Amino acid sequence: MSPSPDEVVRARRRSQEERVEVARAFAARLPAELDVRGVAVIGSTARGDFHDESDIDVVVLAERLPDGAAARQQAVGSPSPDGVEAVVWTVEEWMARQRTGDLAATEAQDSGIWVRRSPPREAMG
């Protein structure tokens, strides 16, 4: 017998919660010296339309970051072995990107699942 629609929805929510927990563990491992202000799950995991091969997209906001995207990726350990892919910005960079309509920046603000949060209130809306 096929699962009921309610069972399918419950299983999907459990899968999403498991993926969010992976992101939460990633956020907890971030080095203290980066002065992390927030980590939000975005993309298909946040929306719930992920599939088995989907990575777990996150936005990492931190105050003490190296220059350059590659150095920032390395500093946060992205991509991680458990499938977390990070976009890494300072809070100031994130706010500027929101003003320009950057998809990842606006998605973090509007529909992101915050797994770690400590930015200034004015930055978080």
UniProtKB/TrEMBL annotation:
This protein's UniProt keywords: Transferase
GO molecular function: nucleotidyltransferase activity
Polymerase nucleotidyl transferase domain boundaries: 31-65
InterPro entries assigned to the protein according to its UniProt record, in alphabetical order: NT_sf (IPR043519), Polymerase_NTP_transf_dom (IPR002934)
Record Gene3D superfamilies: Beta Polymerase, domain 2 (3.30.460.10)
Species annotation: Egibacter rhizosphaerae
Highest taxon listed in the record's lineage: Bacteria
Designated name of the protein: Nucleotidyltransferase domain-containing protein
Region listing for Disordered, in residue ranges: 100-125
